[in-house]
Amino acid sequence: MAQDPSEPANLVLEHLRIIRAEANATRAETNLRFDSIDARFDKIEADIAGIRKDIKGFKLNVIAEVYKANLTVSSVAGHHRRIEALERKLP
User: Fold this and answer.
1) Over the chain, what HEC string results?
2) Residue 78: its pLDDT value, please?
3) How far apart are CA 38 and CA 69, in angstroms?
4) Residue 32 Rama label (left phi>0; alpha psi -120 to 50; beta)
5) How many whole angstroms separate alpha carbon 21 and alpha carbon 8?
6) Quick one: pLDDT at residue 4?
7) pLDDT in tens, the chain (91 residues)
8) C-alpha–C-alpha distance, residues 53 and 77, integer Å
9) Sign of the torsion angle spanned by Cα atoms 15, 21, 24, 28
10) Residue-level pLDDT at 1
């Protein structure tokens, strides 16, 4: 039997096709992993945005509480001054 002269070329082409299929499979797997990582980063970014919003709300609440406390102290101090003024007027 004589060997077909194109057979080695066909074997090389078949081997190249297998290598290309493996490379494409690897590329597809890598793309899936990157998509998964992108989704995880998107979730982390959303979580960070929520945390920032919460912190901003906490800051506003703290500012409001400090303002109320200052008003209370100011009011007590004002009442104390008025009482002292009234006590000085008493004989």
Assistant:
1) CCCCCCHHHHHHHHHHHHHHHHHHHHHHHHHHHHHHHHHHHHHHHHHHHHHHHHHHHHHHHHHHHHHHHHHHHHHHHHHHHHHHHHHHHCC
2) 82
3) 46
4) alpha
5) 20
6) 65
7) 456 666 777 888 999 999 999 999 999 999 999 999 999 999 999 999 999 999 988 888 888 888 888 888 888 888 888 888 888 887 6
8) 36
9) negative
10) 46
Tokens encoding 17: 């096709």
Amino acid at 39: A
**Residue 19 corresponds to which tokens in the numbers above?**
């290598």
Q: Tokens for 67, please give them.
A: 């303002």
| pTM of the full structure | 0.53
Q: How many whole angstroms from its chain centre is CA 40?
A: 10
